[in-house]
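Case study 2.
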Amino acid sequence: MAEKDCTEIGLAEKSKPTAGTEVENNTVKYGGKQNSFYYEVLDGHEHNFSEWKTIQSPCQSDYRERVCESCGYKETEGFEEGSHNWANGVVKAATCTQKGIANVYCKDCEIEKEQTEIPLAGHKYVTATNKATTSRNGSVVTACSVCRKENGRTVISYPKTVTLSGTSYTYSGKAITPSVTVKDSAGKTIAPSNYMVYYPGGRKTIGQYAVNIVFKGNYSGSVQKTFSIGPKGTKISKLSKGKKKMTVKWKKQKSQISGYEIQYSLKKNFSSGTKAKTASKKKTSVKISKLKPKKKYYVRIRTYKTVKYNGRSIKVYSAWSKTKSVKVK
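Prediction:
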């Protein structure tokens, strides 16, 4: 049987009635058969209160309070409402995704009077730049710092091609400073304000030189390009034919060279079957043998100088001379 307390009623068993007996109003019948049992509805008992406790408040008179230890019901004595120091507060700030809660509360006793809803706040947009590298596009993104909703995105095309105005120059005794052009992956020219160009010193003598392009602003990374200053060239002064051979004579270049390179081919454009022969700077002619008989050969010449670059020896060449031809016997 359920026991009664201050929160729920109880049931007490009564005697079994005979058939046809009228059931009283304060009884409960379980089942519909003649041998069913009947139970009396019992009222709950009194609260089980704790001792009285004195409550002090800056906005109210002192009063006593006690609480039922079974159901939590509170009973007060001597309570008089005073004058509160009301103020507006925020229980939960609104964001761009969630509404907030505002309230009215007493600044002295902190009792809350009411709560109201705060509408959604606007987005807090911030702009962030992801710099383009020398191989990957970047972006400028405007997005909400709270919910990350984007309000704009601009692609920064990476610098795809970097070119010098020239890569091969002839020695003149003057400093050489080739200009730099940068184009992005979309084919547009990147303004010089987005990069710094660093030229090496000593760009007056024959040799190879590295130019460093360092990106800044919306770009990061660097690119290195090289150019060379070659010796002055020469020209073929005479071609003499012989049986399966020929003799090449040229005008001597008196300074700033280490030697000569002679190319010869059966193709006018030297596209295939091209052979080369070198000669020291002291020579002004060379004989070339083991040629195919009755064939026309095309010949050109250039000078070179051996220089040091990055700790190793390399050859820096002049431009090719005009091509001359001869038909061997």
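Residues 162-230 form a domain with the Immunoglobulin-like fold (CATH 2.60.40).
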